[in-house]
Amino acid sequence: MAVFVTLKIWFAYFLLVVVTFSDCHVPQYETVLNKIQSEKAPASTQERASYDVLARLLPSHLSSFEFRIITKEECGGKFCFLLQNHPSAGVYGGAPEIRISGTTGVELCAGLHWYLKHWCNGHISWDKTGGAQLHTVHRPGFLPRLQGDTLTIQRPVDWNYYQNVVTSSYSYVWWTWERWEKEIDWMALQGINLPLAFTGQEAVWQKVFQSETFNLTKAELDDYFGGPGFLAWARMGNLKRWGGPLPQKWLDQQLQLQIKILARMRELGMTPVLPAFAGNVPAAITKKYPSARVTRLGEWNTVNGDTRYCCTFLLDPKDPLFVDIGKAFILQQIKEYGGTQHIYNCDTFNENQPPTDDPSYISALGSIVYEAMSAADQDAIWLMQGWLFASDDKFWKPPQMKALLHSVPVGRMVVLDLFADVKPMWSRSDHFYGVPYIWCMLHNFGGNVEMYGRLDVVATAPIQAVTSSNSTMVGVGMCMEGIEQNPVVYDLMAEMAFHNATVVVEDWIEEYARRRYGELTAGARIAWKMLHESIYNCSDGIADHNGDVIVEFPDIDPKRSLFQIRPRQSLGQQILGHPQHIWYSPQDAAVALQYLLSSADALGLSKPYRYDVVDLTRQVLSKLANQLHSQVLDQFRMFNVEKMDNISSRLLELLSDMDDLLGASEEFLLGTWLESAKDLATSDEERKLYEWNARTQITMWFDNTLDKPSPLHDYANKMWSGLTRDYYLPRASIYIKYLKQSLHENTSFAFQEWRREWIALTNEWQVASNLYPTVAKGDALEIATTLYEKYADLIVDDQTPELGIR
């Protein structure tokens, strides 16, 4: 405890060190920012909403804290929170002990989280990554006091952005208000004040396109909207109709859900980002407006270019109809939602090149895209994902980048440097040529379950960006495609919204482990030190998309080496599969697992600890499966039937063991995903549609033929119990069956037959309706320990710590 108190005092001192930044002063941007601040909910509303967050998090401590909204002027002109010992503490029973002041409700909640973290050793995480650890929080009347009178924590930059345009499909698609309420609480506690708010927009589009102005029918819009599990890609113009049609009940439910989401975000002082018109239109527009300049786009990840689903329609921004539609859409949102916070996301050129690289043409297009927003809202700010600059840098050279970035008044566009954790564009464009931007961590693709991170980059790179000469950085952000994974990465990234200096990860991660488990054992300390130096220290500059053989069995002729398979660089390229990404020593991860398991007696009742044990065991065994698969192919190429049989049997046994492990942890159950989809249905027909969407998204989606899989197979793979047993294991078994057949019959590997059987398995599984557990079965720690011991000879050279010691 003495060590912890010393660290706490040092940490408080560290936070008081002031680092001077070259603030981004862009007049038009600051004007709108001040307007947004002036239009926020009343102070009393934000305070009440913050107390409600506290009541849901720690109901026993509702009277222990006092919340007060203060002005930015009281915070030196910045967004901040203040922590103080309450003057009434100890004066009378039930008096507040800690006063938290903040510029918005978000800062109040972030201040609460900061206090719980650094004074009470508490930890807050998603429920599906172990949940909160708050048993270390002292009981009311005995909360730790602060050293000194006031601790002031200023935001170094204005914004803490959250979400990716596809997160709504990979993670949020089946959520009810109950789950959304938890997420908004989590956002507030993490200090997120600029969340994307995309739910329910199809209902708004329906009202726009069915209005007297455009007069489209429900059937024509059925051809335009994607199914529930694929709305993100229909919104981006990648596909249409796939997974649909959308039931009217869905449209109505989602609109009402969005109204609740926006109301809660606003009550807490957040600035929700609404969608704007990017040019994607229904096919029927070409009939209603035959003279409109509409281009039919090329195919996107299809097998046969099936025009029922692909090759969507893009309205030329230079057509007068573009501004009319864009204006109508924003006005309808303002009407439905009772107002706007003036920031809109639009990505017209995301994975979609302009027809020419002429800078003057690009500038004209960008200007009109913004005009479609400003025609409805004169204070509009265009928030644009900067993914196009990172993913297609051959097209977006400096002249083209400048043309787009400067096509709107400086300050009326903010760019998300979406992939700054791996491929920062601010440093290649002199801070986006003077345009305000947000440093973002992308981190996750497809909502894959994979331990991965770049903690040292997260702890330093945002500070380097904001303190560099001529910086126009105005925020940090988390832009993962899927959430509820790698909680350590998001814990640190959220903190960076309040750090004025780089963080020493070696020290930070030790305190993280202490907070997460409620105490720090020797085994946990060593394990997390090793994890930081291995799994969470990726430095190869490669985006991590889980291509492990369990979840994405290589679709290759076995006579070809895996190293001959080129990685797919973007979704638009017709190359199947992702490379197996290994950036650390699997041996190090296995030894870290040994040390983590050695603390089972001391930490076994901790849910975050149990989650971490299962997740790390899963990670270690998944990489072992890659090695076994490689050995199977080696023996196949050497025509060694007996050895190939032995190793392949062990590989299949490992997959079965993996399903048992995952099935013992409620965070890794397929049944939860499927049942949440079906629970939204109001009829048997809807239930069947929603379950098909849920099953298809995580396996193989978009069109395929009987013998050619979709390029998007396993893009959104999930290492979940049930999916492993009934899909991944049978698929691997089919492939191995044809390997054995080839050797036994001395014939070529039946590649097309393998594909036909795998695709048939996929199609059958997607239309099935069998039930999967939503409750864990078995003791996860016991299973993890047993599996570690079973496979120890394959994953570690020697066993240094003894299981069961602290």
UniProtKB/TrEMBL annotation:
Which is an annotated Pfam family here?
A: NAGLU_C
For the Alpha-N-acetylglucosaminidase tim-barrel domain, which residue ranges apply? 161-499
MF-aspect GO terms: alpha-N-acetylglucosaminidase activity
Q: Which residues form the Alpha-N-acetylglucosaminidase C-terminal domain?
A: 508-790
From the UniProt record, give one GO term of the biological process aspect: system development
Q: What UniProt keywords apply to this chain's record, in alphabetical order?
A: Glycoprotein, Glycosidase, Hydrolase, Signal
Q: Where is the Alpha-N-acetylglucosaminidase N-terminal domain positioned along the sequence?
A: 49-144
Reaction equations catalysed? Hydrolysis of terminal non-reducing N-acetyl-D-glucosamine residues in N-acetyl-alpha-D-glucosaminides
Tree of life domain: Eukaryota
Its family?
Answer: Belongs to the glycosyl hydrolase 89 family.
Q: Report what the protein is called.
A: Alpha-N-acetylglucosaminidase
**Top-level taxonomy:** Eukaryota, Viridiplantae, Streptophyta, Embryophyta, Bryophyta
What's the gene? LOC112294762
